[in-house]
Design brief:
three-stranded antiparallel β-sheet, 2 domains, Cation_antiport_E, 168 residues
Length: 168
């Protein structure tokens, strides 16, 4: 087992665990803070080998814009899915689409797959062994190429800009 380079191999996870533990315990006593610190240090340190390598450069401004875009897409997709489900089932056109990836880093691909799955009406189902194609299921796919271009413009391009770690 490879040892991590730092005491905090995943600092954001450590911060999240620390805050999450304190919120869960609903107390900021000395014992809870010590326990939270121990968990926030040990869990990322012991599980670092299972995590994809995170990017070294990150553009926070673009990340904030991307997060707002994804949140608005989630709200709009919920309304569209509700309309589809409450309407005629004959209008549904479910399909699996093979999405050709331009991203190359595992972390970036994971963010893209998670974003696609967060948006109602689409789910990331599988990734090819060579990491070149993502299998996506769409609830209503009229035009596969239009869906591919929508995902590329709306999600994949911004992810590439945010993390600056994947090139086409």
């Amino acid at each position: 087992m490879k040892r991590p380079d730092r005491v905090f191999p995943h600092p954001w996870l450590s911060v999240s665990l620390l805050i999450g533990w304190l919120l869960l315990m609903n107390s900021v006593s000395v014992g809870n803070v010590i326990m939270a610190a121990v968990l926030a240090t040990l869990i990322p340190w012991l599980t670092h080998v299972f995590w994809p390598r995170s990017p070294h450069r990150l553009r926070f401004g673009r990340l904030l814009i991307f997060a707002c875009r994804v949140l608005s897409d989630i709200v709009l997709a919920n309304l569209q899915v509700a309309r589809l489900i409450l309407g005629s089932r004959r209008r549904l056109r479910p399909a699996f689409v093979h999405y050709p990836l331009q991203l190359q880093q595992d972390f970036s691909i994971s963010v893209l797959a998670s974003t696609i799955s967060l948006t109602p009406g689409t789910v990331s189902a599988d990734i090819s062994p060579d990491r070149s194609t993502l299998l996506i299921h769409g609830l209503d796919v009229g035009d596969e190429q239009a869906l591919i271009e929508h995902i590329r413009q709306r999600y994949e391009e911004p992810i590439r800009e945010i993390f600056e770690c994947s090139t086409p």
